[in-house]
User: Fold these one by one.
Assistant:
Number 1:
Amino acid sequence: AQCHCPKVGGAYSSRSSAPVLCTRLHAPLHLCASHPPRMPTRMQLSQQCSSTKAQGAAALRHSASSWPGLRGCGRLAAARRQQQVLAAAPRPRSSRAAITAAAAAVPEVYREGQDPEIAAFQQHQKTAARPTAAEDARTLMALATNAVLSTVSSQASSAGVPFGSVVEFAVDSQGRPLLATSTLSPHTADLQADGRCSVTVIAPGFKSLQDARFTLTGTAKPLPAAERAAAREAYLAKYPNAFYVDFGDFQWFRVEDLKGGRFVGGFGRVASVTADDYTAAKPDPVSSFARHVAGHMNGEASHIKDMTDMVAHYVGLRVSDAHMLGMDRLGLDMQVTRNEQSFKLRLPFIKWVYTCGGEWRLAYCKVDFVF
């Protein structure tokens, strides 16, 4: 080891110098006892601070006992405080351990190479009937009561950057969002200056990233006077108490020139939706009252047992718990538990929903549920 004193610069002796803990790398440095300590260079630190953290702690204890002149040194006091903080702090896990822990949290039903029951379940889910991504997107847009409207900011302090606002909206027959905005709202000025925007909606009861959401992009344009009455009617049908749309400072916009969107239905269900597919699709006719059915089915223990039995019979998967998340004309979306792991499951109907005398019916097994 070398003395970092510019006057000596030679090898130290055990009687004239003692190790001091490096507060950056937590290893002992040897300084000359006859001259003031001098901060070593980064290169010198990396070359000399190769001892372990434990060795550094031992060096501190040795310094305090064998070199009394250094006990009051600010460098040693700071080093001792630093060592105490480091000793008390939890050691971070390695990246490999973090990756292993994350992988263990993934339900086994989503991984390859499992037992025959899991393999059969995975194959069943690949072919289970469900609405298209475009139909799911139209359904979300029809059911959502609020949306995040992202505009290109026209404010001086944030000009040109995305600006998000929570808004109410309705949709027309093509699924195009209808907006009634006040001139007091900054997004109204944004749309007047640059109509490019996106509208993001989430599924009713959204709780986590396992739940569905959809973002639609396009250009908002002022609604022609001849079409405002129809837009107002559609808006008030969704928000009966929205009397403020008749105030003089409110303006009507419709998002047109759609560019398409992005649908995320949860884990493993992600799809881009073209503008043509979106406008051609229709909202699911059953989803509007699915929450009421789900509330009834999830509210009674006997019905939960019925659902676990249906999963075992039709899917071939034995689960300990099942809750209905949603329903459409093709089947049920469920959250089930197996081996203490919770995941989503699709349970298609044997027959699609149909109408009979003005009532919606769905046939499952030999029982008709009428609602």
Number 2:
Amino acid sequence: MSTQKKSLSELSSDLEKRYLVSEPKEIPGEDTISLLDRITLEMPVALAFHRVLEECDETPLVDLGAMEGMGRVFVKDEGQRMGMKAFKVLGGTYALHRLEIRGELHEGDTVTTFTDGNHGAGLAYAAREAGYKAVIFVPKVMVKSRRERIEAQGAEVIEVDGDYDTTVAEVMRVAKENGWVLVGDTSWEGYEQVPRDITTAYSTIFSEALRQMKEEHGLEPTHVILQVGVGSFAAGGMAYCLYEQVPPPRFICVEPTDADCIYENVRVGGDGTLACQGKTESVSAGLNCGIPAYKTAWPILRDYCSAYVALGDGWPISAVRELYKHGVIAGESGCCGFAVLMAAREDNKLREDLKLTDQSVVLVVNTEAATDPDLFNEIIGQEVVVSNGS
């Protein structure tokens, strides 16, 4: 993995940015309408489940105040979710619950998945709490600290010699051979229900955030910026905002330039099955996915995003530092929504094309805390996070 060979200064110098602008479709595709209907129907069920889930307290909404030329900025800090340093535990817990309800998961079963880190840790937590064995497949290049987070939840971790998408293919094969229950957050033909449950679960974040913005500040977002790996998080957030807010905010999705699968499909008019052109080796490890969740996320992103942004590694590194000054501990994937604002602050054309003004109200989500403590401390320049438990 090339990011491990590059120095921090080399990573920081990668300030590439590219973007496409769009207008949400007045008449979305039939696949989008069907997907939104299913997610919207389930959102209250997911929210009710999370409200009674032990330790699932609301995460903070941090008011960063005004950012010149871009209005007021709020950060929903999912790095504080259930002690797991990331939002994905919401998906893992809800997915297992729904599998149990449907009679597809039974005592003594083994659950399995593929992960760049956070989804695997979230599923391992959920499996431990519910009494199931978990086997989590990870790319061999995953940093030690992220593997240890998964193992700390009692899961068995199996390394795959390849990238995230190679890992997906391997776990599909092994799960079928062993009769394990696959709990994946990306989708393909014939595998849609579980990733749709996970997408639906992420709507809880936005239910909390929009209520917090309204009750604590009397505001609604004009812009919501969403990280994209396979797209499940973004699709869940967009589905909730489309349901709750009329007119809806402008949605901007952001990916690494080296893992820009949504951007690439939009650029060439693809159907959501095309792989990115990069090597999926960006510093934002949690977003290093080569192919979208084309059955359970892609249609929503295709039809409702106003812009598709891809950023080089230097932008999230700068965003980690900037958010730390505001008291937010953000990982290199967690900060990417805010990184868009940093790029726009220095690029008038980008800011104009994103329709950001001094009157804007922007919601971003810190989707993870410092899940790679060594890298975080190097970025900050001091030992702030001393272990995975800090």
